[in-house]
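Data deposition worksheet. Section B asks for the primary sequence of the deposited chain exactly as it was used as input, without tags or linkers unless they were present during the calculation. Section C holds the resulting structure in token form. Section D is free text for depositor observations; keep each observation to a single sentence. Incomplete worksheets are returned to the depositor.
Section A, Depositor: J.P.
Section B:
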Amino acid sequence: MNISNKFIDIIYPPRCHICERFLWSNRSKKDQEELLICRSCFESFSEITSPLCPVCSRPFPPVAEEDHICEDCLRKRPLYGAIGAPYLYDGVFMEAIHRFKYAGKTHLADSLGPLLVSFARGWLNKTDECLMIPVPLHPKRLRERGFNQSLLLARHVASSLGTELDFLSLRRIRYTQPQTGLKSDERRKNVSRAFELMDHRCVKGRTVILVDDVATTGNTLNECARVFRRSGCDRVFCLVLARTSGA
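Section C:
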């Protein structure tokens, strides 16, 4: 932090983006980068660690010991290669995403984005030749919300990794009800044929990194991957901020 920033912090003391307490000496860090999150909130985040499913990233109880493909992915392999997620969708972290997504707290992208960047650096290999695409909102939902949270996150990651970002080619062409509260089969039907690619050439022969905020059953991600694969995409990897612990 330079002198001018320190001076600004004295006049306008920063607050934690989640609990809104003043950040005096309790500011957390990730990869040596200071976050606008206090240590108490940051330490409450549940990181996803092994054992987990290497395809959908669903965590297993510690007794499982080793990573292995879960039953759902064995029964029907998803069209994406893998989902990568740094945190569980629970507790304080879930509350932070709710504020970001539903309460219009778009400034939270400046705190949550770097966390996704840190994970992406370790999880993804070569990304400079990849195409990063955020999961789109339907125009009606975009008007209601005023922003696409997946795009805000994708901008952080693409900028930090030097990855090409395309947020116009993939469109959500069918207005769907929120996935929350729906059963697995209902979620799949809800997003069926909900997406369309405007220009098939943009993904042909390329690796796509699909970005979203939360993965639950993975049906939305799989439906997007279906559109990419039909257009000649080579591989699809899904990068999300949080993952639920169950299907």
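Section D:
The chain has two domains: 12-44, 45-243.
The radius of gyration is 18 Å.
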